[in-house]
Specification:
The complex is a heterodimer of chains A (324) and B (775). Chain A has 324 residues and is an all-alpha fold. Chain A has one domain. Chain A has 14 helices and no strands. In chain A, α6 runs antiparallel to α8 and α8 runs antiparallel to α10. About 3% of the residues of chain A have low confidence. Chain B has 775 residues and is an alpha+beta fold. Chain B has twelve helices and 49 strands. In chain B, strands 21, 22, 24, 25, 26, 29, 32, 33, 35 and 37 form a ten-stranded mixed sheet that branches. A seven-stranded mixed sheet of chain B has the order 11-10-12-13-18-17-16. In chain B, strands 39, 41, 42, 44, 47 and 49 form a six-stranded antiparallel sheet that branches. In chain B, β19 and β20 form a beta hairpin. In chain B, α4 packs across α6, α7 runs antiparallel to α12 and α8 packs antiparallel against α9. The longest helix of chain B is centred in the middle third of the chain and has 25 residues. Classes of the chains: A mainly alpha (324), B alpha+beta (775). The interface between A and B is large, with 50 and 60 residues.
């Protein structure tokens, strides 16, 4: 079914073997199951507001479920994406097959890109498998299809940079265990640390909202800024819906006191794009047997420079996400 | 000639013409507008102002709208106008004066073009006495000058019978209305109904006398305070007393005999005037002609009119002092709109089950199947295929099972006034997640305005914006997303949904209610003398009777009455773990609004309440897929028939809430009067209909909230016949029999005076048991 001659050998092998065994099916089941459980929990929490006499529109239920499920998918993607590539290079080293691969005509870039594409394909498969859960949102309304598009883009963007980072950790440490430690330590520091820094800044500055620059690199804050326009503007009708409280926490500083939402996810996208190119470059350097400049370095540098130029030209689009 | 070039040039010209539309023609010569504001442009902020517009069309037939708006307002009142060529029409448009402005813009418009417009000068009269003088031949009084009064100066508006608005909303700005020499049959049925509703809402109506037939043909019988008899000479003592000066001398007038509940001022049998309450308001009927030459020549007439021409009460509202309860009552009703109906949930569990089945299919089931046929790589194709096809199926199912995405709440208060007239106010609140334009059917002739912003039971509500149509059976409500917005619809109608009669006799009090409406009256309640009687549901044309128990507990005020009506429901809702019953809270709030009094919280007159589902104004919001709720509260005052000897237990003769208002207090669920400063006078009153009772036995019980002084108390009761205080051998506390009670209880009033060391007693409460007979 998979045409060998259309794909590279590594990609072919990855695609052929990735879904073998029960691990992939288990991951699909758990992934979709987690989305479903979270949707049911959010529905339960929201519907329980009826017991307190709060007026409730079905659109509010739909919006709260959408926000909650999107946050859950983003969180899972954040920690699952690196996991798909953490052992991609280190496993080859541990099995002693990496030198064999180096002896083949396969270039380092082809190896890395194929590994990356295979990981992304699997993540995309998970995402597609979870999409029917969003029909629950349509049951209640409150959203349009156009609201789903930026959410999917942010999730995919997180998946790409996550896979690249996992690949980088795998290449640098050459051991799966160390790669896992390094990767998740950095991720937890990124996610938790930026929120902690924003909270400290807020405490020091009279509980005012922290600047978006403190949370711009946080993928959860990025998706929070995409979701923030979707929530009902009048919180008096939503009371203390927990997903919305979480949303406020994650988008701290992004929404000013006039209700204007800074497009922080624009800045996050630009940063992640640069980071992806840099991480792939770093991975290419890490897998080389000898540290020397090659044509690939030139290509990556050129890509980075072009990217930088593009980012500079489009600064009006993303700079307000950091400095509103 | 290059015809192609010419054609292209012509096409360009046509396109240019289409891009630059011709500016709308303003004030076309064929339509003229002459608008006049009622009450000479004087208005009280927070009330309605009728504007009469005469439109003349000297052109072709037109279909236009008459619009009125205040500067900077977010709404316009509009009335559709159909006018044939060469015709003219007079239209009355009611404008909600919810801001203090000095001009109102009135225009005639067609398809967005202004055909004629006029700006009217208006004057807000906050904290002033708007006095209407209604007369068939012009009426002027010697009123005090504005500069001579420290507060509440008079703003006088002269009205002919034709000028009197035929909707109660039109009278809402008047605090006092003096009617004199009104020609018989000069008021229409609607105008008489408006008068009834206006007094019921708190207006004070003064009726000039002087002639025996002064009331015939125009005054509703419910507003009569006394019957008129032969011509008589009226003593000027009460006038001089009120003016604190020498009177104008004996006046020519008529003999007045107070009706039940009427309180006469002046020596019987020719009192100077009689005052009687109706609803929240008062009617004062003069025995003399207020425009008599003697009155005009009287030097102290300004002081007299200043003292007597007072509104029934003044309440503080967001617009300042008002002389009726409409603003507060409507805000209480608007607050109930925030108790929105619960939207029925879609079959969520079934949907979740389908999603669980999908999860099993796409996970273990597919994996097992592909493993069996050794084609695991097919997962790359089959997983997306199953996901997309399942997604499409679930998408279709979700769209078909979707429930309401907006809510509409509607509450109505119907006050049956007697004379077959009813005042109906319906409030509609709507909430939607997107911009909505909701078509609403209403009764033609109803007037509408936005609900005023208020925080209600469960959140905030504001008013709609845009055009609000009058004199049409359909209007469009523009609702903004995620904002509960409402509109008030008001009208007077001929209506008689129930007939109720209270019979008081030797066996006690009994009520009989007959449902004359087309739908079941639910949870009917009768209230009289602070006692609540639950009558249950009454089907159409069904008659239901009930008797008050002799020792039934008294509910001294509005809150206690509500507590008795909803005792069972509130107890059920207060059980541990039980969520608040929103429907009951809504009903409690509506009853609270219906029982609200401007003068006090005490309900002394009989009242019957009942619930129905739809509004008599036939309001219907056309909102597909909206969760709707509608609740209507009917109120009416039953007729009271008293016959033979009667025995009234405690609770009937109670301290008068309006006359003791300034130093009222309460103790042990009883209303009383503060003992400080001494001497303290307690004015007790029977309900209006029991006013003529001739007491044969009277037992008074007097107690205090603090320790009663053990010496130095003098107790006196006012003897109406001798016009003097008579000392009683009682120094309290406790009960004592009053000898010869007939002289002390007159026209349903009893006055007790306590002097001496009574100041230490705190709050003095008094109750009484009365036996007697009606004449």
């Amino acid at each position: 079914m998979i045409r060998r001659n259309l794909l590279g050998p590594v990609l072919f092998k990855e695609l052929a073997t990735l879904l073998r065994g029960s691990r992939a099916a288990l991951m699909i089941t758990v992934y979709v199951g987690m989305v479903l459980i979270s949707a049911r929990l959010f529905y339960g929490v929201t519907a329980s507001q009826l017991d307190f006499g709060q007026p409730l529109l079905s659109a509010q239920i739909g919006q709260v479920i959408f926000i909650g499920v999107s946050l859950v998918i983003q969180t899972m993607t954040l920690f699952l994406a690196p996991a798909t590539t953490l052992s991609a290079v280190s496993h080859e080293y541990e099995r002693g097959t990496f030198e064999l691969i180096q002896a083949t005509p396969l270039s380092a870039s082809q190896l890395i890109i194929d590994k990356l594409i295979a990981a992304m394909a699997f993540l995309l498969l998970l995402l597609i498998a979870a999409m029917p859960a969003f029909t629950l949102v349509l049951l209640f309304g409150g959203l349009m299809i156009s609201d789903l598009v930026p959410v999917v883009i942010v999730i995919l963007m997180t998946a790409v940079v996550g896979c690249a980072f996992g690949l980088f950790c795998s290449a640098v440490t050459r051991q799966t265990f160390n790669a896992t430690l390094l990767c998740y330590a950095v991720l937890i520091s990124l996610v938790g640390g930026t929120l902690f820094a924003a909270s400290i800044w807020s405490l020091i500055n009279g509980l005012s909202a922290a600047p978006p620059s403190l949370v711009v690199a946080n993928p959860l804050s990025a998706i929070a800024t995409v979701l923030a326009p979707i929530r009902p503007p009048d919180d008096s009708f939503t009371g203390g819906f927990r997903p919305l409280v979480l949303l406020s926490l994650l988008s701290r500083g992004v929404i000013d006191n006039r209700g204007v939402i800074a497009p922080t996810y624009h800045a996050t996208a630009v940063i992640y794009g640069a980071l992806t190119i840099s991480l792939i470059w770093g991975t290419l350097v890490a897998v080389r047997p000898r540290l020397r400049l090659t044509r690939e370095d030139g290509v990556m540098l050129a890509a980075l420079l072009v990217y930088g130029l593009l980012a500079y030209m489009l600064r009006g689009w993303w700079v307000p996400g950091i400095f509103p | 000639m290059n015809f192609r070039l010419i054609a292209r040039a012509a096409l360009m010209l046509i396109l240019l013409g289409a891009l630059y539309p011709v500016p709308s023609a303003r004030a076309q010569a064929s339509v003229s507008l002459t608008a006049t504001a009622a009450f000479e442009g004087n208005y009280v902020p927070g009330t309605w102002l009728p504007i009469t517009a005469r439109i003349e069309n000297s052109g072709t037939a037109l279909s236009a709208v008459l619009a009125a708006e205040l500067p900077g307002a977010t709404i316009r009142h509009i009335v559709p106008v159909e006018l044939a060529g060469g015709a003219q029409k007079q239209v009355v448009i009611y404008v909600a004066m919810d801001q203090s402005v000095r001009e109102v813009r009135v225009s005639v418009e067609q398809d967005g073009s202004i055909l004629a417009e006029q700006t009217l000068a208006v004057r807000p009269r906050s904290d002033e006495r708007m006095l209407g003088l209604l007369s068939g031949d012009g009426l002027s009084l010697s009123l005090p000058r504005r500069e001579d009064l420290p507060s509440q100066p008079f703003t006088v508006v002269s009205l002919s019978p034709a000028d009197l608005p035929d909707q109660v909303a039109g009278l809402s700005g008047l605090g006092v209305l003096l009617a004199n020499n009104v020609p018989p049959d000069s008021l229409s049925e609607a105008q008489r109904g408006a008068l009834l509703a206006w007094v019921n809402a708190g207006g004070h109506l003064f009726i000039g006398g002087g002639a025996a037939d002064a009331l015939s043909g125009w005054l509703p019988s419910e507003l009569q305070a006394a019957t008129t008899d032969a011509q008589a000479t009226i003593d000027d003592g009460p006038l001089g007393e009120l003016a604190d000066a020498t009177g104008p001398g004996p006046l020519s007038g008529v003999q007045l005999t107070p009706l039940p509940g009427g309180v006469s001022v002046g020596a019987a049998p020719t009192p100077a005037w009689v005052t009687r309450s109706f609803g929240q308001g008062l009617v004062t009927q003069f025995a003399f002609d207020p425009a008599a030459p003697a009155m005009e020549a009287w030097e102290s007439a300004p002081s007299f009119w200043d003292a007597i021409l007072q509104p029934t009460f003044r309440v503080s509202t967001l617009f300042g002092q008002q002389t009726n309860i409409d603003v507060i009552q409507e805000q209480m009703l608007a607050g109930t709109l925030t108790a929105l109906p619960t939207i029925p949930q879609p079959p969520v569990d079934m949907f979740f089950l389908l999603l669980v089945m999908y999860t099993v299919l796409i996970g273990p089931a597919l994996a097992l199947f592909l493993r069996r046929i050794d084609r695991q790589a097919w997962s790359w194709l089959l997983v997306p295929l199953i996901a997309v096809s399942s997604g499409l199926l679930l998408f279709t199912l979700a769209i078909s099972l979707r429930t309401s995405d907006k809510v509409v709440s509607q509450v109505s208060l119907v006050e049956e006034l007697g004379n077959g007239q009813a005042r109906i106010r319906t409030l509609i609140g709507a909430l939607a997640p997107q911009d909505q334009a909701l078509i609403t059917r209403v009764s033609p002739g109803a007037i509408t305005r936005p609900v005023r912003e208020i925080s209600g039971l469960y959140g905030d509500i504001g008013g709609v914006s845009g055009d609000l149509i009058q004199q049409s059976d359909q209007m469009t409500l523009s609702i903004k997303p995620w904002k509960l917005q409402g509109v008030l619809i008001e009208q007077q109608q001929t209506m008689r949904s129930m007939v109720a009669t209270i019979q008081i006799g030797e066996q006690g009090s009994q009520i009989e209610v007959i449902n004359r409406g087309g739908e079941t009256l639910r949870d009917v309640v009768a209230i009289y003398g602070g006692r609540v009687l639950l009558l249950g549901n009454i089907a159409p044309d069904e008659q239901r009777s009930g008797r008050w128990a002799p020792n039934q507990s008294i509910a001294p005020d509005r809150i206690a009455i509500i507590g008795q009506i909803f005792a069972d429901e509130v107890a059920a809702a207060n059980r541990p773990g039980q969520a608040a019953n929103r429907h009951i809270e809504l009903q409690i709030a509506m009853v609270n609004a219906a029982l609200y009094h401007g003068g006090s919280d005490i309900e002394t007159e009989p009242l019957v309440l009942g619930w129905v589902d739809g509004s008599p104004l036939k309001t219907e919001v056309d909102a597909p897929r909206a969760a709707q709720q509608s609740l209507t509260l009917l109120t009416m005052r039953p007729e009271v028939q008293v016959s033979g000897p009667i025995s009234l237990p405690e609770g009937w003769l109670i301290p008068d809430p309006t006359l003791n208002q300034s130093n009222a207090c309460s103790s042990n669920n009883l209303i009383g009067v503060r003992a400080n400063p001494a001497p303290v006078t307690i004015i007790m009153r029977l309900p209006n209909d029991l006013g003529p009772l001739r007491a044969s036995a009277l037992t008074l019980t007097i107690d205090s909230s603090e320790r009663w002084p053990n010496a130095g108390i003098t107790t006196e009761i006012y003897d109406w016949a001798k016009e003097t205080w008579v000392a009683q051998s009682f120094d309290g506390p406790g009960e004592f029999e009053v000898g010869d009670p007939a002289t002390y209880l007159s026209e349903g009033r009893l006055q007790i005076r306590l002097s001496g060391t009574i100041e230490r007693a705190g709050c003095i409460v008094a109750t009484a048991r009365v036996q007697g007979a009606m004449p």
